[in-house]
Amino acid sequence: MDPLIITQILNILFGVTTLAMIALGLAITFGMLGVLNLAHGEFVMMGAFCALVVDRAGAPFLLAVPLALLVCGGVGLVVELLLIRPLYRRPFDTLVATWGLSLLLRKLAEAGFGLGFNSVAVPLAGTTTLFGTDYPTYRLVLIVICIAIIAALFAWYGTSRAGLKIKAMVGNPDLARALGMPVKRLATTTFVVGSCLAGLAGVMVAPLVPVHPYLGLDYVIKSFFVLVVGGLGSVLGVVAGTGVIGGLDSVMSALFGSTQAYFTVLVVAILFLWLKPRGLFAHG
Amino acid sequence: MPPFMIIDRRTMLAGTAGALAAGIVPGALRRAVAADGEFKIGLLIPLSGPAALFGPSNQGCAELAADEVNAAGGVLGRKIKLIPTDAGAAPAEVAKSVVRLMLEEKVDLVIGSHDSAVRQAVEATVKGKGAKSFYLIGNDYVWARNSNEAAKSYISAGGGTIAGEEYVPLGAPNRFEEIVTRIKGAKPDVVLITVIGADNVNFNRAFASFGLDKDITRLAFLLEENTLQGIGAESSGNLYSCMAYFANVGSEANQKFKAAMKAKFGDKVPQLSTLGADAYAGVHCAKALVDKAGSTEAAAVAAASQGLSFATAGGTATMTGRHVDKDMYLALCKATEFEVVKTFEKIASGQSCPV
Known about the structure:
heterodimer, A: about 280 residues, mainly alpha, 2 strands, about 75% helix, B: about 350 residues, alpha/beta, Rossmann fold, 2 domains, nine-stranded mixed sheet, about 25% strand, disordered N terminus
């Protein structure tokens, strides 16, 4: 096969897997807890800044992973306890509260790091030859890691006891509580996991983009499209949603151009909202 | 209400046109002049939102210019008072469109001077590097498209060919893997870049990560100090920028400008770039124009523009036939610094200003 076609196929794979990684955290908080977290992008941004801090300190890039988990998990924990918990089942209030949170987090990042563009050095710089084409090594590794994380989460949610409990909590929180399940703690854990995934995604994209306080905005919109198309409440929905949104975006971009790709994604998202508002794999 | 008039960028342009407009931009003169007292200049600059990273530079340089004008007696005998006005806004979507607005406002005005720079830069790469084929990548709006139209005519005049041309939406979260792959397939000698801001960073990082920076020369027409910082040392190989101002241009005028900024702000000198230099020139231009016209009437201002001289960070500029001749520089990126490799002196601005 033409090496350029292989490169474009890898591009599509890269687009889909990284988008899935970013949408995953959002899918968990939104789909399972019903919390529309508008600050999700800011958790991605915080993860990216963790990578920047590690890069500036001259430490190995991988140290950014525990740092991001600590920072994003910690912030996620505090946010859930103070902001989200009192507002469960009040979707509009949650929306406004998390919007305010996103402003606060952006401004804090601005106060700490300024507004300028920063760059994080690419770990594993250079290209690797695969099927007769040179592809950036770091992007190849990202594809593999994203697939591994999504598969692990898929397996864990489908088979583990914790996954079962979360399903019970999502399905009927009152009954779950009556059965003695620690619903509040479960919800907190779920939110923290969602925040950690966002932070992890932030670390992953940091070497690819300019790291700045508004970084999260670029990702959160497409992630919402993924949920609109895929439907809420299942890992399968996220995978299907990213397949459609990320795949369409990359394919159209490869065939026609970015403007046409962006246009197509918008049209598809609108069509889904209109004709199939529960998405492809709605829960329940 | 005292009689006042507002000079918006269109009226101002009618009076000044072309390259000079570059001087007015971020200080985009939307200003009200009180009949007496202070001479107020509203500075429309981004203070919030993503584009706010350019704000401090714009404001600092404009303040320096205001100080200098006031020390020399002010405008029509009145002291200048700058009124910074936020052209940015916080919420996600508004912020994005502000980047678009601000940068668009900026660059479609610059066209008068950039137009000519495109020609010099393209000719320099054709002659200097023996470049034959060009790939054009830009944001989808007027400045990029017009610059590329101009570039294409110079390329074909020089016997070169266009290997590809494409545009990405302005203000959208763009990815560049697909485009870089197409460029890889087209194998051009030179890529002409008219994407701006974060797109400029993303494109260049993706380009280098695919290993294309070794064989293909990149030439950008709006690449300033902050953007290069984002591109980073490892992605800036074989990358050129062509603009009217770089912070480390060695000219005497720029040394004086930088010393004055240092004297005013000490350690807190904002990052100097073409955007700040434009704000500086904008205030000086306003003074020169209004002083010569004796009023802020549009017709008088238009008449006064002929033969007008005013200070810029690059030295004194003189307007003839409603255009300004100025020096342009071609700089090679060395890690995250610009190194001027060629100076094009007294470049007359083009006549194809689309504004």
